[in-house]
Amino acid sequence: MKSLIQKLTETFSPSGYENAIREVIRREVEPLADELRVDALGNLIARKGPSTGSGPAKGKKRLMLAAHMDEIGLIATHIDENGFVRFTGIGGIRPQALTGGRVRFVNGAAGVIGIERLSDPSKAPTLEQCFIDVGATSPKDCPVKVGDVCGFDRPFLDLGRRLVAKAMDDRIGCAVLIETLRALESTPHEVYFVFTTQEEVGLRGAHTAAFGVEPEIGLSVDVTGTGDTPKGSRMAVSLGKGPAIKVKDSGMLSDPRLVAWMCAGAEKARLPYQREVLEGGTTDAMAMQVSRAGVPAGCLSIPSRYIHSPSEMVDYEDVQNAVKLLTALVSKPIEW
Amino acid sequence: MPAIGNAQLKLLERLSNACAVSGDEGEVRKIVLAEIEGRADEIKVDALGNVLAIKKGSERKRLRVMLSAHMDEVGFMLVADDGEGIFRFEVIGSIDPRQLPGKAVLVGRDHTPGVIGARPIHLTTADERKRAIPVDSLRIDLGPGGKAKPGDRATFATPFRRVGPSLLGKALDNRLGVATLIELLRNAPPNVDLLAAFTVQEEIGLRGAKVAAFALDPDLGIAVDATPAHDQPSWDGEPAPFYNTRLGLGPALYVADRATLSDPRLVRWLTDSAEAAGLPYQIRQPGGGGTDAGAIHRARAGVPAVSVSVPHRYPHTAASLARLDDWKNTLALLHTALTRLTPAVLAGER
Ligand SMILES: [Zn+2]
Ligand SMILES: [Zn+2]
Question: Pairing relation of β-strands A35-38 and A162-165?
Answer without folding.
Answer: unpaired
